[in-house]
Design goal:
It contains 21 helices and six strands. With about 500 residues, it is mainly alpha-helical. The protein starts with a helix and ends in a 17-residue tail after the last helix. The relative contact order is 0.14.
């Protein structure tokens, strides 16, 4: 009798468990079917919160990009930057990159974009092209106005139109949800380079290419054109220098061939190439790319919630979730892996700072040589070494995570930067000696204040004008954007103004 009771109880328990399991499986299957069904999202829907109604997990993780993104004043941390970029807007204000949530805010609050006041005919010093990678409003406007019109004019032209940070519509087709490149400059560059035609890109390729829309080296190509009314205009079109290849030498050769210079250093008069953020190009030289990995494999690892698998849209460092990223392939403990990566980073930082210090001194010494009457003929070899050295240094430090993407290549190019910097100093010291200043010592640039003073930056005036702009003109931009129905309030939820000035 006892046995019969026990068997009955066990059978009922098993039936209950199986029932609950069946319900759970059905619920998961139903949820998976719901996720697999393509929702109706209108074309060029720039409000990520609207996409989040259909993809709550992805949206929830995307919103986490506002966490763990510390604001760092890079010039305060490394004052030599103000000398290297003297005469260029970066000498005024440069902060280390933060998460996608902050793309809009950091672009608008930086001193580099100026303090426009369109009502009084005061415009930004930057072209509209400076919006290109700052959010999904850009593809919307390119579709509405045309690419050339979008790239025509000053940055403040679209102040009330580009108000949402990087989001869903930057990378996904709203009809199919497939990954897609929304910026034509990348498609053109790929097709022109020929290594990988855009039409031939696989899904795995796309998991890097959607990132490469913005995480690349670029310049603004001046393009003359006429609108429908025959009015002549000039556009500054974002262009990728990949015609000769993806390596930094190939890009340098491209720029040299067309005689391009981003700016002339105010102190040394050297024609400088300013690297932007060539992550994709650097990544291509590393072992992860060569083994077939994509950006998303490490920066957007898959997660599971119940029976649902989805990618984590909290795009950030793979080290934030080593168990879901690095340790999938690297059979090591988290502690020892972090230590190894820390050592690689420390080497790159040390070499990068050594190169920036040498190059900064060379710029200041070159400025003194000019003051003493040095000739163009005397100075040309020095200026070319500065151009080559600074390009290599910038490639090595402006590429976010270069020490991780391609540690050997990063150390190689930073070593070459240091070499060219030393060559420039040797040559300029000989010129100084010739002009009776062989014992000249470059002035102290050990603090942000000292370095910016040498670079001619009037930080107080710049900051006052910027604050006035943010408190007035920009607030009007938001009001206009709300009236147009293109502003997503969720994109600025709990956002506080943080600046380096």
């Amino acid at each position: 009798m006892k046995k019969a009771k026990i068997v009955t109880v066990l059978s009922l328990s098993a039936a209950v468990v199986m029932g609950l399991l069946t319900v759970s499986i059905r619920e998961n299957k139903a949820e998976q079917l719901q996720i697999a069904a393509t929702p109706e999202i209108k074309p060029f829907e720039v409000r990520s919160s609207e996409w989040g109604k259909h993809y709550p997990r992805q949206y929830s993780t995307y919103m986490q990009t506002k966490k763990g993104s510390q604001f760092v004043d890079a010039i305060k941390e490394e004052p030599a930057l103000a000398i290297l970029w003297a005469g260029y807007a970066f000498s005024k204000d440069y902060n280390k990159p933060r998460g996608h949530y902050y793309m809009q805010e950091d672009n608008v609050t930086t001193l580099r974009t100026g303090a426009p006041d369109p009502a009084n005919d005061v415009h930004s010093p930057q072209p509209t092209a400076c919006w290109t990678c700052k959010g999904p409003d850009v593809p919307r406007l390119m579709d509405r106005d045309g690419e050339l019109e979008f790239f025509t004019g000053k940055w403040n032209k679209y102040g009330s139109e580009i108000v949402n940070p990087i989001g869903c519509a930057d990378c996904h087709d709203p009809k199919t949800m497939k990954l897609t490149v929304m910026r034509p400059h990348l498609k053109r560059a790929l097709d022109k380079n020929g290594t990988l035609k855009y039409a031939d890109a696989t899904h795995q390729d796309m998991r890097s290419l959607v990132c490469a829309q913005c995480h690349t080296e670029y310049y603004f190509h001046t393009t003359k054109w006429k609108d429908d009314k025959g009015v002549e205009k000039e556009a500054k079109v974002v262009t990728l220098p990949w015609d000769k290849g993806f390596s930094f030498e190939a890009m340098e050769a491209y720029y040299d061939a067309i005689g391009f210079t981003d700016f002339v250093n105010k102190l040394s008069k050297a024609p400088i190439l300013k690297a932007q953020h060539p992550e994709y190009e650097t990544f291509r030289t590393g072992i992860h790319f060569k083994r077939g990995l994509a950006c998303a494999d490490c920066h957007m690892p898959y997660m599971r919630e119940g029976g649902v698998k989805f990618s984590n849209h909290q795009v950030g460092s793979p080290l934030d979730s080593i168990g879901n990223t690095c340790l999938n392939c690297h059979h090591d403990s988290e502690e020892s892996f972090r230590q190894m990566i820390g050592e690689k980073r420390a080497r790159a930082v040390q070499l990068g700072k050594a190169a920036s210090n040498v190059l900064a001194k060379a710029h200041l010494e070159a400025a003194k040589a000019w003051d003493l009457g040095a000739t163009e003929e005397e100075m040309q070899p020095v200026l070319q070494d500065l151009r080559k050295g600074q390009w290599r240094w910038d490639i090595g430090v402006a590429s976010h995570g270069a020490f991780f993407h391609a540690p050997e290549e990063t150390l190689r190019i930073l070593g070459k930067a240091l070499e060219y910097g030393q060559e420039a100093r040797i040559k300029v010291r000989a010129i100084l000696a010739k002009h009776g200043a062989g014992d000249y010592e470059a002035p102290d640039f050990s603090t942000k204040e000292k370095a910016q003073a040498l670079a001619g930056v009037d930080l107080a005036t710049e900051a006052a004008a910027k604050k006035q702009f943010l408190d007035t003109v920009r607030e009007e931009w938001f009001k206009e954007a709300q009236q147009k129905g293109v502003f997503d309030p969720e994109s600025r939820k709990d956002l506080q103004r943080t600046t380096a000035w």
